[in-house]
Design brief:
Elements lengths: L4 H10 L3 E5 L4 H17 L6 H27 L7 H17 L1 H10 L4 E7 L3 E8 L5 H14 L5 H5 L10 H12 L7 E6 L2 E9 L28 H19 L1
Antiparallel strand pairs: 1-2, 2-3, 3-5, 4-5
Helix pairs in contact: 1-2, 2-3, 3-4, 3-5, 3-8, 6-8, 8-9
Length: 256
């Protein structure tokens, strides 16, 4: 698929959103979205932020795809996804069964008109990256996400991060890595959010254009994150991110 760089330039000049939509997250579709992200950042002279936003984009696309597939799966099993007990029952077999039959579910996503959208926008002093999917989080799903976000602010070591793994929903390492990457840019705790509006789940990152990687010792409690009582982390943040990314990649391969 060809990237229309002129449309990207026009959208940036006019400060209007760039929106791309697909039914499913796949290697090809995710790569196309990432190419658009790359061209967007290049036009803004922000290519140095590509790694962080590219990783975040792919994780959020995968999460959105999984959420939509989950709705189809629960409907097939005649389970109420909003019922706590039904939810627990369905999640016991969800990952295994949907991974084995992934091509079938990818087709069903299109047939049942599920969608995933990426929105990019130049906001002046900052840039916006949103990923939307047209299914609303259940109370259980929202609680798990919010709990993971809150816990990640207090991670001081690899052990802290790994202790937060929840195998019933997948490890959740993707969101943890996104949050740690944003932490490395010394961004406000409010730069990442997940909310539901107008029948959609919206995952949003607002990144300042002047964001740069900082040394971990320069991060303070004002950034919404905490360290140990000596003011330092027991592991290098780079090491934690790298090791978690390796674990996350391995788990994805094991599911295929």
């Amino acid at each position: 698929m060809t990237i229309n760089k002129e449309k990207i330039k026009t959208a940036i000049a006019q400060k209007t959103p760039i929106e791309v939509e697909t039914h499913t997250s796949s290697h090809e579709n995710d790569g196309y979205f990432d190419d658009i992200l790359s061209a967007f950042l290049e036009e803004l002279n922000l290519s140095h932020l590509h790694w962080t936003l590219s990783y975040s984009l792919r994780e959020l696309l995968g999460n959105a795809n999984k959420a939509n597939i989950k709705r189809i799966y629960f409907k097939e099993k005649d389970l109420d996804i909003d019922n706590v007990e039904d939810y627990k029952k369905g999640m016991e077999t969800f990952s295994l069964e949907t991974t084995v039959k992934l091509p079938i579910y990818q087709e069903l996503l299109a047939q049942e008109n599920y969608s995933i959208k990426m929105i990019l926008q130049d906001l002046g002093d900052s840039i916006l990256l949103e990923v939307k999917n047209n299914s609303v989080l259940t109370t259980t799903e929202k609680e798990r996400i919010l709990e993971r976000i809150e816990r990640s602010k207090k991670y001081n070591s690899m052990e802290d991060a790994l202790s937060d793994i929840d195998r019933t929903e997948g490890s959740g390492l993707g969101i943890i890595i996104i949050l740690l990457m944003l932490r490395k840019l010394a961004l406000s705790k409010d730069c990442f959010s997940v909310e539901c509006t107008n029948g959609e789940t919206v995952s949003k990152i607002v990144l300042r254009k002047d964001a740069k990687e900082v040394e971990e010792r320069n991060l303070s409690s004002n950034d919404g994150y905490s360290f140990d009582n000596r003011g330092v982390a027991s592991d290098s943040l780079d090491d934690v991110i790298d090791e978690l990314a390796d674990i996350n990649d391995l788990e994805v391969l094991e599911e295929i």
